[in-house]
Amino acid sequence: MKKPFATAYDAIKKLLKSLFGKKEDIEGKGEEGTATEESAENTGEESSSEAEASAGETSEQEEAPATEESKKIEKILANIAEEEGIEEEKISKGEKAEQEKYEKEVKKRAERAAKREAEDKKKEAAEAAAEKSGNIKMVVDPVTGEEIPLGALPKEASYLKKYMRIPTTSDDITVAINSIIKHTDMPKNIVILGRNGFGTVKVGEDFARSFYDLGLVKSDKIAKTKAKQLNKMSLDTLTKLKGGCLIIENAGLVSFNKLVEVIKDSAPDNNDYVVILTGEIDSLANFFEENSDIVDSFIYLIDIHKIKERGMMHLARGYVKEKGYKADKSVYDKMKNSLKSMEEGNIDRFIKFIDDAIEKCDKREAAAGKEDKEILPSDV
Fold it and tell me: Rounded to whole angstroms, how far apart are CA atoms 11 and 4?
């Protein structure tokens, strides 16, 4: 990994050389003077010893500043390197390796993005054709691989209804829930794929609550942890979670051994809980590519990474309704404006923003002796 100071070090080096001139350039001028002198001797234009002495003196005068300024540069850079513990050779080798690694990852992500885009366009075209024809929408069952009717989201999965107007995501959720209900003997674990900067833990919580309401888990207990914390944690602390759901945030950073340990611990004959992974789509893709042995334990993928402003506003309206409140267009316009100050698609942060507005609404109405549950622009 390149040291934070290395870039500044390179910049200073270039700056000093531009101020004082490169050593080889200055020495080149001296050599040019010597060549001119020799040429003059050969043509007889400047053959006197006085001219030779003059040329030699000029050359020495030019070389002296060159040597002096070069030493200054070397001394300054040596002091900087000594203070920061930088060794040029090690930096250059490290930078090259890091750059190659970075370029490889960028290429891999670009290829994945292109593939996803092609698949999305194909899926969108199929959806448009199905809608136009009025035919029943067909999807692939993640367990059997068979083509089946999409069906509808069960009414008991009320916490997930606010996602039903988000393209692709709504289908993923409907397919996952209906497949889990149908194949109760298969793992119920979920992977929620987001974009970098997303917060999707709230989506995981909505799945956990819906699992309980649908009778797919025995307990309404939900445990949340970040991957790095889980890596250091003893699973003895999850004993109380028996029959519930575990949500792992930034799951692309969890160690393979720890996740294997979690999968064994969550098995029906042990603590019998569902594992929900949330994280950035490429990090999770890398994790599963490198650890293919555990892929079969995570059948259901929920794609949230494409959610845009429109989808976020569908989410807002659904969430306000889910909480039993109402709001008019002016309120949603203010919510829409608030999205500009957030990472696009950060569901966790947006839900927190709406929760704060609901809390202000409750306090305002309580002070006025009302209970209309109507969010006003002043609450947002």
Answer: 13
Kindly give, in sequence order, each residue whose CB lies less than 8 Å from that of residue 186, ignoring residues fewer than 6 positions away. Answer: 143, 180, 299
pLDDT tens per residue, range 199-241 = 789 999 999 999 999 999 999 999 999 999 999 999 998 999 9
Residue 342: pLDDT band (50, 70, 90) is confident
> Closest Cα to residue 94, out of 20, 169, 156, 1?
1
In terms of Cα–Cα distance, which of 369, 374, 312 is closest to 342? 312
Q: Which H or E run contains 190?
A: strand 190-194
**Cα–Cα distance, 143 to 328 (Å, whole number):** 43
Amino acid in position 7 = T
Residues 71, 75, 81, 87, CA torsion sign: positive
- Helices 347-367 and 329-338 cross at an angle (nearest 10°) of 140
First-to-last CA distance in the chain?
A: 44
